[in-house]
Each structure stands twice: as C-alpha cells, then as structure tokens.
C-alpha cells in the first residue's frame, strides 16, 4: 500500500520536549507522536544555521558539496543540479506540497522555494510572515517594540493571527483536498517558532512560572574554549529589549533575570508550536489518513539557551547541532488502528501533564543528511545511490545512508554485527558518527562571526560527534576554491560525553588525538 509522507520541520528547535526527558517543557502532542514513533536521541544537523542545514538535508548532500555555508547562493547554479528529496518523490508520482518555511526563502532556493523542481504547486507562505520582525511587542507604557521576548495578544496582531497558525490551517486544507484526490502526497510543513523573535500567544507563559525557570547548567564561557569556537549571538543583540541592556561584546553575559525570561519564552514558544503540531496531526486523523501516512518530525538545528555563555545557533556544540528526530510509520513503528479509532487526538498542554514514553528510542548517532535516503526507503522507493567522492556532476545521489536499519534493531544486535569485521580500521569506522561544520571569518569573535559571507570565511570548524565524544578542529579555509587545509589547524576541541555531557571541559590540549584526526580526514 502506498504511503503518503507528512514532513514536519521546525525552525531552531532543540530537543527540549517531554519525550526527550525534559521535565519542564509541556509538549503533549509531540510526545504523543513520539509514543507511536521511532525516536532518535542523537540526531545532528550538518551546519547550525537555517539555509545551509535545509539545503543539505533536502538534497542529501553535505555543505561542502552544496557549497552553501551562508544564505547567498543557489546550489543548482553554484554547485551542481542536485535532485531534492521532494523532487524525487514528485518524479515518483507523488503530489509534493510545501507550506511555511521548508526551504530557506531567498536566493538559496532561487526565490521560489525551488519551485517547480521540488513542488507540484507553488509553495504557500503565510501572509503574516512579513510582520515577524516588526514592532509588535507591547513594552513599557504600552509602546510597541521589536523585542526578542515577545508574548502577544493574537487578536491584536495584524490579521488577528500568527504565521504558524496560518500554516497549520493551510496544511489542514491541503489534507482535505488530498483526501478526495486518491493521489499519494508528500506534504512538507515548516513551522517558524521557536525561531526568534520569541513571538507567541501570551497565554503560554502561564505554563512556565518564572520561579520555575533556571539558568543553563553552565552559563559561563568555558575556560578552555578556543575563541574561534565562540558565537557572539549578534542577531539577538539587535532586538530592542536586548539592545537596551547594553551588554558588552562579545562575551556578555546577559543579566540572570533576562536569561530566565529568554528561556521561559523559548519554552512557551515550544508549547505553542506543540499545539499547532497537535492540530495538524488531529486533522490527519479527521481525514482518515493516519493509517497510511508516514510522519517525520525534526528541526533544522538547535539553539543555545545560555550554555557556554552563548545564545542562538552558529556553533558546533550539541546545543546548536542536536535536533529532535522521529518517524511514525504505520504498521512498522505503530500497530494499525481500527477504522474510526484515533491515533492522534488533540491534547491540550494546559490540561495534559506528563508526556508519553517513546515507542522506540535509539541512541545511535545519526545525521539529517540521511533523511532523503531514509524516507525513500520507508516509502518503498528505490534508495538513491551513495554519492562518489566528488559528486558535483551527479544529479541523483546522497551522502547520508538510510537509517531504517536502526529502526527495530535492538542496540545489541547492531553491536554484534560489528564483531565480525576483520579489517580493524573498518571496524573503527562502523560506529556511526555525525559530522557538522561551521565557518568563521577570524580567530576571535567579531561582528560577522555568526554569519560570515562566503568571501569572508577564513576558517572552517569540522566537528565529529560519536556516542562518547565530540571532536572539533578549526582549520584554514580558502573560499575561492572551497578548500580546507587540515595542515593549518587553528584550534581544537575534544569533549568526553560521559564525564562532560555539557561540553565544558576541552581536553584537546592534554590528549593525543591522532586517531580522531585520521577519522575526520577519512
């Protein structure tokens, strides 16, 4: 039986969710999805910024292959005419639909969200998206500001709504259209929140009394953090409320009480997002498609909430690269339900307490670049071939292997397969790792460190995350020929996950790391 695909991607969402063990965040609808899904607790983006990450997972190629490290080039013109995941589904008879922020808008998707290559009809963008950065946040004396922390009365917003509410409504409309079409579909919906500004319906603040909000466990800049690794969170400094705090550049810190407010609003925005996901999945039940639709839920990258004295994305730390990732596959991750029975009844975060436990949790380290081949396999399409070493000329191939093999393998079983390998180096290579990277314009934080333009990139931080460590080298990079020089190492980081889960104690300088270095070159 042909399966539809509902692909949900959330902007700047780190795994602060009940189903990921977060005790504070109320996310009953996403938790309910997780309870019917395979959930990956070690999933990583390939670059912690919107456009490069999205182009990477939508093409199944790494940033060094898409050649997009900033926002200012279109891969089909500047790298190679790579097929995308929705394009592949479209070529295989699916109606492909895009709602909200799926591709990053602008030049990096040809000002068209890659239409008509990727989508059957013109992508939908909510009409109120254009007010996102306007002064819509009520401040002192009733004046309006463009704040970072921005709880709002939705009825007083332009058109009386918010972009994510409009996206949910459009996606539900499309589900109803497709129900009658008898044609299989790939519907992608990109939610904006919790991307800044943290603008969400003010009632969600009630879920998070300020006295329950703590600071990050490590709100200081680590002593041995190389300056090149630090991101100075320039984007949030430009918001009116942060600007008024007059925080010193680049290390800050933000005042403690304001840190708590940012964390509170991030969580509130996540709960608001959860209600939108809940309404969408409830509609999937309403149209009777929960039994034959794969649901994927993920984010484009994480977001620091004060860890290491950092905010926003733009780094190689777990808090910036780790994302939620779950797959609901009817008949595989969940038993089919009888007709008329609901899989995803809407859950109100104001009345639903503790989340449900995920169906299957995998600690395997996986990458978003694997989404393309994984979804192809789950939908029963031919899995695109693995890319050759250089693949600029190859239209259809992927640099991320399908992770379906981890879906029902108990962790032990996969371990055993490894025992049987004769070539020691290959054995070493079998343990999955995730690669992320981040460009910098200079060795120390400056105004454009977070988002350097291609021509200004001088250093590339290549980072490798295994189950038990994160290893990063910052090496010279030449933007004219896109080449990294691994002999020109500017700085390094090594964190052992078991003893240092928050990545605060860099032991790069007191450890021999030649084996890691070989592997990152491999």
Automatic annotation (TrEMBL):
One of its GO terms (biological process) is carbohydrate derivative catabolic process. This is Iduronate 2-sulfatase. The lineage of its organism: Eukaryota, Metazoa, Chordata, Craniata, Vertebrata. GO terms for molecular function: iduronate-2-sulfatase activity; metal ion binding. GO terms for cellular component: lysosomal lumen. Belongs to the sulfatase family. It is an enzyme of class 3 (hydrolase). Residues 4-380 form the Sulfatase N-terminal domain. The keyword Calcium applies. It catalyses: Hydrolysis of the 2-sulfate groups of the L-iduronate 2-sulfate units of dermatan sulfate, heparan sulfate and heparin. Its EC number is 3.1.6.13. Its main location: other. It is found in: Lysosome. It comes from the Eukaryota. Its cofactor is Ca(2+). Lysosomal enzyme involved in the degradation pathway of dermatan sulfate and heparan sulfate. Monomer. The 58-kDa mature form is composed of two chains resulting from proteolitic processing, the 42-kDa chain and the 14-kDa chain that remain stably associated and form the 58-kDa intermediate form which is enzymatically active. Keywords: Calcium, Disulfide bond, Glycoprotein, Hydrolase, Lysosome, Metal-binding, Signal, Zymogen.
């Amino acid at each position: 039986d042909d399966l539809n695909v509902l692909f949900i991607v959330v902007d700047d969402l780190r795994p602060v969710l009940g189903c990921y063990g977060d005790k504070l965040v109320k996310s009953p609808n996403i938790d309910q999805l997780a309870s019917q899904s395979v959930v990956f607790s070690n999933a990583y983006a390939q670059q912690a910024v919107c456009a490069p990450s999205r182009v990477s997972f939508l093409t199944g190629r790494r940033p060094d292959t898409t050649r997009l490290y900033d926002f200012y080039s279109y891969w089909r013109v500047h790298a190679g005419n790579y097929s995308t995941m929705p394009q592949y589904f479209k070529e295989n008879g699916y109606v492909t639909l895009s709602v909200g922020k799926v591709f990053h808008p602008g030049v990096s998707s040809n000002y068209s969200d890659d239409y008509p290559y990727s989508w059957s009809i013109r992508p939908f963008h909510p009409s109120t998206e254009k007010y996102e950065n306007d002064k819509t946040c009520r401040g002192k004396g009733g004046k309006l500001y463009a704040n970072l922390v921005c709880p709002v009365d939705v009825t007083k917003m332009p058109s009386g709504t918010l972009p994510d509410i409009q996206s949910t409504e459009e996606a539900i409309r499309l589900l109803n259209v497709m129900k009658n079409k008898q044609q299989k579909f790939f519907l992608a919906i990109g939610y904006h929140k919790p991307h800044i500004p943290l603008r969400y319906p003010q009632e969600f603040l009630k879920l998070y009394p300020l006295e329950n909000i703590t600071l990050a466990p490590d709100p200081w800049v680590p002593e041995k953090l190389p300056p090149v690794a630090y991101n100075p969170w320039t984007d949030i400094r430009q918001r009116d409320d942060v600007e008024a705090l007059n925080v010193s550049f680049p290390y800050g810190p933000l005042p403690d009480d304001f840190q708590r407010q940012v964390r509170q609003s991030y969580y509130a925005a996540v709960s608001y997002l959860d209600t939108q996901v809940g309404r969408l999945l409830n509609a999937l039940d309403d149209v009777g498609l929960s039994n034959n639709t794969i649901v994927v839920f993920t984010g484009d990258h994480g977001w620091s909430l004060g860890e290491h004295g950092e905010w926003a994305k733009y780094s190689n730390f777990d808090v910036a690269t780790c994302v939620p990732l779950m797959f609901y596959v009817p008949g595989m991750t969940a038993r089919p339900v009888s007709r008329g029975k609901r899989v995803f009844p809407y859950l109100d975060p104001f009345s639903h307490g503790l989340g449900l436990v995920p169906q299957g949790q995998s600690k395997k380290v996986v990458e978003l670049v694997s989404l393309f081949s994984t979804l192809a396999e789950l939908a029963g399409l031919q899995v695109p071939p693995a890319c050759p070493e250089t693949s600029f000329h190859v239209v259809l191939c992927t640099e991320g292997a399908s992770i379906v093999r981890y879906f029902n393998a108990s962790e032990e079983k996969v371990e055993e397969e490894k025992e049987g390998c004769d070539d020691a180096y290959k054995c070493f290579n079998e343990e999955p790792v995730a690669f992320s990277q981040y460009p910098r314009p200079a060795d120390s934080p400056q105004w454009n460190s977070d988002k350097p333009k291609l021509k200004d990139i001088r250093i590339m931080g290549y980072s490798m995350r295994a189950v038990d460590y994160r290893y990063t080298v910052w090496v010279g990079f030449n933007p004219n020929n896109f080449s990294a020089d691994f002999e020109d190492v500017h700085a390094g980081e090594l964190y052992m996950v078991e003893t240092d889960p928050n990545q605060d104690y860099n032991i790069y300088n007191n450890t021999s790391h030649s084996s890691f270095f070989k592997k990152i070159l491999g």
